[in-house]
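Annotated sample (chain length 557).
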Amino acid sequence: MAFDFSQVKDKNFSEVLKKTPHLLDYIDSYSARGNPLPLFTDTLKPEHKKLKEPNLMYPISEQAFIHINPHTTSDDGYLEYVIIEPPPPERKLMEMADKLFAVQSGSLDPPVEITERFNMVENYLDKAVSVQDGPVDYEKVGDVYKLKTLPVEKSKWNSLKYHFLQKRAGTGLLDPFLSDPNLEDISIIGAGNVYVIHKSFGALKSPLFLGVEEIDELIISMSEQFGKTVSHAKPVVDSVLPDGSRINIVFGKDISRKGTNATIRKFASTPLSIIQVLTSKALDFREAAYMWMMLSEGMSVFINGETASGKTTTLMALTAFIPSNWKVVTIEDTPELTLPHSNWITEATRDTGSPSSSVTMFDLLKAALRQRPNYILVGEIRGAEGNIAFQAMQTGHPVISTFHAANMVALIQRLSNDPINIPKTHMENLNIALFQGAVQGPGGKRVRRVLSINEILGYNPDGGNIMFIPSFSWDPGTDEVKFKGKGSSALFISHVLHKRGMSRKDEGKLYDELELRAKILERMMEKKIFNYYDVFDSISHCREIGLEAFYKELDTL
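Output written by the structure step:
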């Protein structure tokens, strides 16, 4: 029986269904099981996050769609993350397309950039295929190696193109996951279902089930793209996929009992801006204004937290506050940081397995001291490079880095012990320790919050401890930030007043400025200045014309 389009109230959804047969087949089957039709949206909006039982569908390409399905038969508590894509072409057709490509692609030089690679393969396919109105009997086509073009039935053309591009230009069955900008993490746990972390809906379970051999084949194929050998001899690999996403692999059933596992941390081509972070309430306007003032004055900051607490997101968002005419050097194990500054040097470590040719974080930090940067950003400090980072701070090169520590006690213990070994008397070179975490927010949902922002005062020889002041702290009961107001910042007195050539009696002016900066950020949100680069340009413009003038200018937008 034909699908009843009268039940589809959304005109846009109806049009998409009519021109996408595989999506119509899915919806027809879904509604036939007594399920309500999903809400169709071109892009996810903030209000969608608030849905208690989201039944949503959105496109990630012309042919692929995502369905957040609450009507699952599974009783494990997960909502489903369903990928709807064209069905695979018949095996014989795909085999012939592969053979023809093997013959004709010898002259093609595949580009490194993923979009260009897709374009190259798509252009090849358009020339190599002749689309036919009627069916094609591939048993009678003849010797594929002698064909100039491959005949393909019109109704099967989109399916062939979609899956061929995935196989030859992309990452195979992982392509839809990587194409979804709403995902943070993709997790292959070994033999079993694939799991994802969704920006709006948290942890979701994909119906896609992978076997041990299927995973190994996928991972070995992908390793050719990111240029690192994955094998039983070298089973643990960290690398970067062509789209910039980070991948960690533990290869082989002898190490990973359920079979090879892989975790992909999605790369956002445009990072979240500080205004977007503020909309999520990860920190409040006054905290952001405080960090604006501190980074403008070249303070050293460690952004601390546990895994998946959002440290790197916060670090990149805060870079908008580093003056646009400053020179910045970023140092990472795996390239991830994106900065809007024009005078930006980006460097990454190199692990060849040989001490003579490998380049470590320690090496790059030492080199950075000779590059005269205004700021050094380190993706994550874990070992002996921490000692060099503190030497940099001591010689007037401020450092921003992420660090694994849940609180001040843990931070100081890790910094003062092996392998970092920072003397406690040098700890005051780090000005600010910001802590954040993934916590249970209103309604029981997991949210990211800055838990505290602490100013490090220095070493107390009498007690043998490090003195610090929590300038801001998050109250879990009210989900609000506590700030004591005037007099709560020691850095205002010891550093900011001094750097600006102001006297102690001017301290009140700094708190007035803090409030004005908070209002500016709030007004920027009201004016919907969200894009990472637009926010950076706005902050730079504010620095040029002054806070008061910029605040008034925002009213005219």
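Annotation: Residues 71 and 357 are 54 Å apart (CA to CA).
Annotation: Residues 183-269 form a domain with the Beta-Lactamase fold (CATH 3.30.450.370).
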